[in-house]
Amino acid sequence: MSKSLLVTGGAGFIASNFIHYMMQRHPDYQIINIDKLTYAGSEANVQENTASSGNYQFIKGDIADEQLVNNIFTEYDIDGVIHFAAESHVDRSINDAKAFIESNVLGTIVLLQAARDTWEKTGELSTRRFHQISTDEVYGALDLETNEKFNEQTPYDPRNPYSASKAGADMLVKSFGQTYGMNVVTSSSSNNYGPRQHPEKLIPTIISNALQGKPIPLYGDGKNVRDWLYVEDHCRAIDLIFHEGKALEKYNIGGGNERTNNELTRIICDILDHLKPEQHSHKSLITYIGDRKGHDRRYAVDDSKIRNTLGWKPLTVFNNGLNKTVEWYVDQWEKAPL
Ligand SMILES: NC(=O)c1ccc[n+]([C@@H]2O[C@H](COP(=O)([O-])OP(=O)(O)OC[C@H]3O[C@@H](n4cnc5c(N)ncnc54)[C@H](O)[C@@H]3O)[C@@H](O)[C@H]2O)c1
Ligand SMILES: Cc1cn([C@H]2C[C@H](O)[C@@H](COP(=O)(O)OP(=O)(O)O[C@H]3O[C@H](CO)[C@@H](O)[C@H](O)[C@H]3O)O2)c(=O)[nH]c1=O
Fold first, then answer.
1. Could you confirm whether domain 4-194+229-256+299-314 is CATH 3.40.50.300?
2. Which of 1, 28, 178, 198 registers the highest number of CB atoms within 10 A of its CB?
3. Which residues have a catalytic role annotated?
4. Which residue has a Cα nearest atom 32 of ligand 1?
5. ipTM for this prediction
6. How many CB atoms lie within 10 A of CB 178?
């Protein structure tokens, strides 16, 4: 059945990939994308596939703007919300967390209330769906020395202002399920990689600095571990959870690719050495700098619930995904060097 989906933050990294994915997977769906176009969002991220589509609508605006969000719910018959919009960069939250509270906490409550009020009136509060896109960072950090992973029962223990704001938003979403019987679901994923990520994040930083012959900055000893998930595998998981996940439940999504930042950086440098043999040795650019404050040591996700109950698993082999990713950034770089 065709649906109208409100996607928030669709000009950012993951949600723009999600819109591309959904337009191919469900071409009959209408997608309404609300995005404030902060420094992290770019309309160019979504223009490629949506330009000629009659099923796509872009609204430039803030999810914390109550009047705008209420108007969207009045104007469109929204079947479901997939809520990505957020301030997403840990380092920025350490410098100044105010925007994180405004977008991630206040923005989420504005969306929840508009959805609740609209769907309550039509008697569809328990059938229409609000899907919260969350992060493995809400669980805190793991030690390097253990094999432990975050599962859905792991208590929340956010350790930086970004993850605290996401944890707050997740709690509000859960409370709307408990208090009003709203059909909410939450998914928490590990670190995504792929095309269209903002250059402030680790992988685009490595590639862009390497291409420019600039130092590749690694925080601390470079031994921090992240569990890398190809963004398209994440999009497939979200599609499945949105349609088939159980109300009030939470699903973890992992890549099964734990790598230290040192390992990851060296793999990317090897790919670049192969693609750009005429350039300097890329590894020689690796430079250790001061550590991130409160730097979480390791994230790792146990995704057996989504594998066992919904039949999802990541399909992208890490080296293939990284090769595709590096090629995409090199191609962008060649079209428009910074
Ligand atoms: N990137 C990851 O590895 C990762 C992993 C797990 C979960 N997440 C979550 O996925 C979501 C998307 O992350 P991302 O990396 O694509 O982020 P991003 O920073 O690339 O994109 C965020 C988008 O949200 C928009 N936005 C921010 N505040 C807004 C507001 N108040 N109103 C409307 N739009 C606003 C921005 O303009 C931008 O387009 C976030 O909720 C993040 O917490 C990200
Ligand atoms: C930008 C940068 C990062 N790093 C380190 C810090 C981390 O250990 C690792 C990855 O950093 P980032 O790319 O900023 O990602 P991280 O802090 O893990 O957070 C990401 O992954 C989270 C999911 O785990 C998401 O919720 C966040 O929105 C997303 O930004 O690399 C460096 O060593 N040098 C850098 O220049």
1. no
2. 198
3. 136-137, 162
4. 62
5. 0.99
6. 10
